[in-house]
Amino acid sequence: MKIFVTFASAGTGHARAAEAIFEYFRKKDKNSEVKLIDVLANSNRLFRFIYSYGYAFLVHHCLWLWSLGFYITCTRTLYPLVKLWTAIVNKLNTRKNEDIFIRENPDFIISTHFLPSKIAAYLKRKNRISSKLFTVITDYEVHPFWVAEGTDAYIVASEATKNELLAKGISSGKIKVLGIPVDEKFLRKEDKGKIRLQLGIDMNKITVLVVTGSFGIGPIEDIVDALHQDVQILVVCARNKKLLERLKSKNYANVKVLGFVNNIEELMSAADIIVTKPGGVTISELLLKELAPVFISTISGQETGNLKVMQGYGVATQARNYKDVKNIVLGFKSRPEKLEAIREKIRKVKKPECLKELFGVVCEGSGRASG
Prior knowledge:
Elements: E1 2-7, H1 12-28, E2 33-38, H2 45-61, H3 63-74, H4 79-93, H5 95-104, E3 108-111, H6 114-125, E4 132-136, E5 153-156, H7 159-167, E6 175-177, H8 192-199, E7 207-211, H9 220-227, E8 232-236, H10 241-250, E9 255-258, H11 264-270, E10 273-276, H12 280-288, E11 292-295, H13 302-312, E12 317-318, H14 322-334, H15 336-349, H16 354-363
Parallel strand pairs: 1-2, 1-3, 3-4, 4-5, 5-6, 7-8, 7-10, 8-9, 10-11, 11-12
Helix pairs in contact: 2-3, 5-6, 8-11, 9-14, 14-15
């Protein structure tokens, strides 16, 4: 059996989800050929550059333009034109991926980004491949780009996500509410006290993890300045080296300043509250760690959709600025029962069996055991 796990390296979430699926399937089914494919790596340079860096540029420098583009591509009356235009652009720039899919004709294609889903669905409609296509939607709200005729099943994060697909005309039988796949390391039951000891932080203080993506954007410094006297803070500056140096120079007693990290699951295990952006994969990770989320710097589009869904489940709070963050965090500190109430709601929402159930769904009917 041949399985392609595909994604587009536009943002880190799609890649993280694909890598988690790839590693799990490779471990569970050693008799199958499992390949991890970034479709942008097989596209022309200009297309790859625009796709990979266009989003980051717009949200950092032209957020209004990103918001406008998102709105236009979601507008029902304009979507037929958008769909035609994107189909032409994708066709012109992804021929190498089409050739790979046709040549290898895998039994299954699992996609964590709408671009490879579009490529595979088109080839299926043209009878160029016979693969079963599983689209893993990595947000809690569904942009129209995710919907492609020829998709065999949509793997979604929540019942709210399923309802959106139903409203877009997708039949219930094609929708599987399994969650968003994340690395198995987020499933480990860590000893909070042991992790805090390893990190060299206080065992008993309320601990807040501040992390806003790989670029370290948002009012991170203001948040740390506002909270450092009241709670213990783990702050991840990621690739923002200037922020890292500024915070280190302040030498706050209750603050541990980190750059780019590869143990975010341990930091989550050590924390009680997380201040972050509402990306789909990030939300799934923090739900598994049962962290109370305070969302900041929400980007119009998929992140506002994710926030809305989490607010609907009663597990998320939005902060407009660092002052809001402080008030929310101090509210949790003064009333610990509020934290426990959030955790109780999270336990009803999180999907810890996502990878296992996805493996079972994909291998259903293939003669493979679901493990």
